[in-house]
Design a protein that fits this description.
Chains A, B: One of its GO terms (biological process) is isoprenoid biosynthetic process. The structure is a homodimer. Chain A is built from 17 helices and two strands. By secondary structure, chain A is an all-alpha fold. Chain A has a single domain (2-317), classed as Orthogonal Bundle (Farnesyl Diphosphate Synthase), CATH 1.10.600.10. Chain A has a two-stranded antiparallel ribbon with strand order 1-2.
Chain lengths: 322, 322
């Protein structure tokens, strides 16, 4: 959906990014080449490269200039996914066995490190210090988010702010950086870069909130992973935090949340309680607020066609069902 | 030993580096602050910062300029150690329980990622693109070395070139980069930087060969880890490769090498066979050759006192027993 309509204006260029990605992760080590290719073939929406290219449309768009950034962003994202796979002990991602399931923890760690380090080579091509500065800071914060997620796993009574702290670091900051640096690399003026940065941030927040909703309500075949996987891993998301405070059966819910070795029945029961409490609707309303804020930033951008596209992407986030 | 005599001229500055390191890894997340501090307190010789500072002595030495590099180098090194701990399933490092043993795999991975990402912030301070370029390339190669080590684990009949490929990436390149970038940051001319780079490379190769010898012959109390840990983890080092070709009992040795679940008796037997074959002496002779090459580079450096120090460090490598 994203690829076919919303990304129309950059479709050709995204295909080039895909080619570069494949070429770029080729490694002299057989095992590394295999794991990296496996990761790439598992696909993904290439959202971060897409945002960088779209952001580039607001000034002097040059695919050549944007290419290293676009590839680097996807590599950083992929590296964090591989390391999360180790962490979350999830055996499939997007319906395919993960690198960890197929080759083991040790290979996952170094494949992730490899992809991340490869991204640094690309980043070091840019003379503008903002590229490396932004991405290094975001990377640090991404780790902080992950550690926080581990530290708070299976803990009920979390504050909504804890949740926002985590999803900002887990998702929003890298999407924000993609928009910001697309602007930087294409030479956009500061006020444009600022609007792009905030658009990406708000959109990223909405994106993760929606993702967390889908983890509870979407179909396994559509989602590519079992429903309720966050609950199973002890990750407490917005609908659950809401339900904890508002469910009539909050005691049951809290007990299930803290249970580290949940049965399937418990997971499904918790999901039902969250739904009944209105937690899903509440989370959608938060997501909508973020999307309004994202769209508010568009008013500050120059009038190019891509502005409409960014608006449509925001509209799409709240209705996507995969 | 290193610290007390060889590093005399930079001892004060190294203390400053130590302070900066401690301050710099402080994190807003309690868990991250704790794991990072734990890692720092486990110590280590801070060899890479020391080499960067020493290399800086060959031109315009400025601790302020060298500080971010020195801290970044140690962080990269520490990050790779934490990730190796996950990989190698080793429960102690330098005599203390590893982060993994104390907090588990998931925390180790993100602590390593965090330290590495923090190093990138420091690196992005430098205007000279060579700093980021060298360190990103070295980081990629370090991963390739690690992956290669996993791919070849427990495999007998390895070529000496496989071994050199691995230790170059595992150790020599980062030490080489430390010397090189100490030169770069202090504004040294190209021919000086080149000599420092090669000095660091040869020295790093010798250092790892010696380390691999010590893993077979040193005392556990001195080594801070059990003797024969490489063999146990399936890492085939130079003395073993030599013994495989030259031992009278090579069949026994090869069988033990490939055995993934060795008993203590087997490890000790293998060590005996390696010693009998002359593998230790052979490895020492290779280390000596690298050290001669390292010292050869010193002739190309300007005549400052630090030149003598670098020579002494080279002499010390082959006699160190810890």
């Amino acid at each position: 959906m994203f690829e076919h309509t919303l990304f129309r204006e950059i479709r050709k260029d995204l295909k080039q990014v895909e080619k570069e990605l494949n070429k770029y992760v080729e490694a002299p080590n057989e095992m590394l080449a295999e794991t990296s290719a496996h990761l790439l073939q598992a696909g993904g929406k290439r959202l971060r490269p897409a945002f960088a290219l779209l952001a580039g449309k607001f000034h002097d768009y040059s695919l050549d200039e944007l290419m290293p950034l676009a590839v680097a962003l996807e590599l950083i994202h992929m590296a964090s996914l591989v390391h999360d796979d180790v962490v979350d002990a999830s055996l499939t991602r997007r319906g395919r066995p993960t690198v960890r399931a197929q080759w083991g923890n040790r290979v996952s760690i170094h494949t992730g490190d490899y992809l991340f380090a490869k991204s640094l080579i690309l980043i070091s091509h840019y003379q503008d210090p903002r590229v490396a500065q932004v991405l290094s800071r975001v990377s640090v914060q991404m780790c902080q988010g992950e550690i926080q997620q581990i530290a708070t796993a299976f803990q009920p009574h979390q504050d909504i702010r804890d949740y926002f702290y985590r999803i900002k670091r887990k998702t929003a900051l890298l999407i924000s950086a993609s928009c910001q640096l697309g602007g930087v690399v294409s030479g956009a003026p500061d006020h444009v870069i600022r609007a792009l940065t905030l658009y990406g941030y708000y959109l990223g927040m909405a994106f993760q909130v929606t993702d967390d909703i889908l983890d509870l309500v979407a179909d396994e075949r559509v989602l590519g992973k079992p429903v309720g996987s966050d609950l199973r891993q002890g990750i407490i998301t917005l609908p659950v935090i809401y339900a904890e405070k508002n469910s009539e059966h909050r005691d049951v819910l809290i007990k299930i949340i803290s249970h580290q070795d949940k049965g399937e029945g418990e997971v499904l029961e918790a999901i039902e309680l969250v739904k009944e409490s209105g937690g899903i609707d509440y989370a959608f309303s938060i997501s909508r607020k973020y999307l309004e804020k994202a769209k508010g930033q568009l008013a500050l951008l120059p009038n190019v066609g891509t502005k409409k596209t960014l608006g449509k992407i925001a509209d799409f986030i709240n209705i996507r069902r995969y």
